[in-house]
Design brief:
The chain is mostly beta strands. The chain contains four helices and 30 strands. The chain has three domains: about 5-135, Immunoglobulin-like (Sandwich), CATH 2.60.40; about 140-245, Immunoglobulin-like, CATH 2.60.40; about 245-385, Beta Barrel (L,D-transpeptidase catalytic domain-like), CATH 2.40.440.10. It has helices at about 45-50, 170-175, 350-360, 390-395, and strands spanning about 15, 25-30, 55-60, 70-75, 75-85, 90, 90-95, 100-105, 110-120, 125-135, 140, 145, 155, 160-165, 180-185, 190-195, 200-205, 215-220, 230-235, 235-245, 245-250, 255-260, 265-270, 280-285, 290-300, 310-320, 325-330, 350, 365-370, 375.
Length: about 400
């Protein structure tokens, strides 16, 4: 809550002793009630503390993520260091006369900063000061749920995706604190979208598929970032993962086949049955989201009722491609139609034997591209990033 008291009404803050008679003033701007370990003898007024120790103090002001201000009273500052283990070093600027240093890096809520100051007093004597300052915890925070696990191996088509639990009004501020690097290095870009549930989401994809064996690192330095409206990030994350073999699959709905390749070499061409008329399988590239050996498929969960309704208890070898309900799976009830007739409600069906083989080949992040169908899969329906051209994708960045 904003402090509405006048400056003269704020309570005095205890002062601390220096190693010189000249003064160093350390002021941390934060919400009322924040603490600093250098606050000294609690309960004394500033005048009482000055009489008992010296003219250095930590002062508290309003603002959840304010500034740290350091002043050499009657002298100059020669060295200022402010840092915390998570956010790292706090940058700042000196006044023209070098008597005042003010932080320029936003402070992270709920974080203890170590402060080390050196200067020279008006009498030429050295000034030194060490202290710490703890910012108050933010009352309104946001977090991002990311799709990669530390140490995991993923497919070549997997974008790095982060979905936020609160609206992100200042997308540029958040995007600046997100970084993806890789070895070997690639050209890549972030792009914002609304997830299917309406949440703000940002995905990073390289211009082309990742190369097998690429090591990728996601860095999220969101602690203390204001997403707009006083909602602050809390996360400091470094997530390393690796890209596996290039397992790519192409489904031709006209030929009713699926060709699966590994690192450019075709492994098998399977006979399949895709979506029938009015239930056509999505065109374009989908990315494997997960897989389970058995699942119940009820048409009501994807909005299919009436004569076309179905409820299948034990569907085997299920590879999920979209959250809207597209799977590649065993469909023994369509035996005799594989390679001949498209008879599904949008999924890619095949024999139980072929479905088990396909299930064993693919992993999270592998691409499955459907050609000669209708209605290209949307960018936010799973990981549809590959269905827009590169220039369009880059325009989705808040920094473009």
């Amino acid at each position: 809550m904003k402090n509405t008291r006048s400056r003269n009404q704020r309570r005095a803050v205890p002062m601390l002793a220096l190693t010189s008679a000249a003064a160093l003033l350390i002021a941390g701007c934060s919400s009322a009630g924040a603490t600093g370990s250098g606050a000294g003898e609690a309960g004394k007024t500033a005048q009482e503390a000055a009489q008992s120790g010296g003219p250095s103090s930590i002062a508290i002001d309003s603002g959840t993520s304010g500034k740290i201000t350091i002043k050499a009273d009657g002298g100059v500052l020669t060295s200022v260091s402010v840092s915390a283990p998570g956010p790292g070093k706090v940058e700042g600027a000196l006044s023209d006369d070098k008597s005042v240093w003010a932080s320029t890096t936003p402070l992270t809520p709920g974080t203890t900063y170590t402060i080390s100051v050196q200067g020279t007093g008006g009498d030429g004597a050295p000034l030194t000061k060490s202290s710490s300052y703890t910012t108050p915890a933010a009352t309104r925070t946001f977090v991002g749920t990311y799709n990669v696990d530390k140490g995991s191996t993923v497919g070549v088509a997997l974008p790095v995706s982060i979905t936020f639990n609160k609206p992100i009004h200042d997308k540029a501020a958040v995007e600046r604190k997100l970084k993806v690097t890789s070895a070997p290095a690639v050209e890549g870009a972030w792009s914002w979208m609304q997830d299917r549930d309406g949440k703000d989401r940002i995905d990073y994809r390289p211009k082309e598929y990742w190369k097998p064996g690429t090591d990728v690192t996601l860095r999220m330095d969101l602690a203390g970032v204001d997403a707009g409206g006083g909602v602050y990030g809390t996360q400091q994350r470094v997530v390393n993962f690796r890209v596996g073999d290039a397992v790519t699959s192409t489904v031709d709905v006209v030929k009713k086949t699926m060709t699966v390749s590994r690192n450019g070499k075709a492994l098998r061409t399977l006979k399949v049955s895709t979506g029938k008329e009015t239930f056509e399988t999505w065109n374009g590239t989908m990315v494997v989201l997960g897989k389970v050996p058995s699942i119940r498929m009820n048409s009501s969960t994807v909005g299919i009722f009436g004569p076309e309704a179905y409820d299948l208890e034990d569907v085997k070898w299920d590879v999920q491609l979209t959250p809207s309900g597209t799977y590649a799976h065993a469909a023994p009830w369509n035996e005799g139609k594989f390679g001949r007739v498209n008879a599904s409600h949008g999924c890619i069906g095949m024999s139980t034997e072929d479905a088990k083989w396909f299930f064993d080949q693919v992993r999270f992040g592998d691409p499955v591209t459907v050609v000669n169908s209708t209605d290209t899969v949307a960018v936010n329906n799973g990981y549809g990033a590959w269905n827009v051209d590169w220039e369009t994708w880059k325009k989705g960045s808040a920094l473009s």
